[in-house]
């Protein structure tokens, strides 16, 4: 891989927040559109992008320091291109869609040893579906909100969820 190609790959994986994040990232995000067309030569382009991202991370980081690769993937192919999607889900450490972008906050909070205290509201039908995910990332059950937060509370809408930020004492 040429130096320029590797630098391009790095720019697509890292969003430099500060020097420490560039040296020791906890999560790298690879965003791609999952199309309904499997692509040229019968391969899924997004699947190949995730493999490429993992390859770059494996070269740069030893296993205990290797950041998670979060695939932000969305598009028409979720219904019509299941084969390509399975490759992405198999190779990425985690994935989210625009509807589930709130998962990135839960993962980041876990990877950073829970510096944020926040409430999470998900519509009731989704809670059961994401129970394993929330347990895997040790999201506190007491912070799951039964009702959508009131408008005057500091909050963010992230896909299907609403996050309410609490002040740490």
Explain how this protein is built.
The chain has two domains: 97 residues, no CATH class; 54 residues, no CATH class. Helix content is 40%, strand content 19%. The protein is globular and about 50 Å long.
Terminus-to-terminus distance: 49 Å
Radius of gyration: 17 Å
Poorly predicted segments: 1-21
Number of domains: 2
- Sheet with most strands: 4 strands, mixed
Q: How helix-rich are the residues, as a percent range?
A: 40-55%
Give the tags.
alpha/beta; three-stranded parallel β-sheet; four-stranded mixed β-sheet; disordered N terminus; 169 residues; single chain; 7 strands; 2 domains
How would you summarize this macromolecular structure in one to three sentences?
The chain is α/β, with parallel strands linked by helices and 169 residues long.
Question: How are the elements arranged and paired?
Answer:
Elements: H1 3-13, H2 19-23, E1 27-33, H3 45-60, E2 68-74, H4 77-80, H5 82-91, E3 94-96, H6 102-111, E4 118-121, H7 124-129, H8 131-136, E5 144-145, E6 155-158, E7 161-165
Parallel strand pairs: 1-2, 2-3, 4-5
Antiparallel strand pairs: 4-7, 6-7
Helix pairs in contact: 3-5
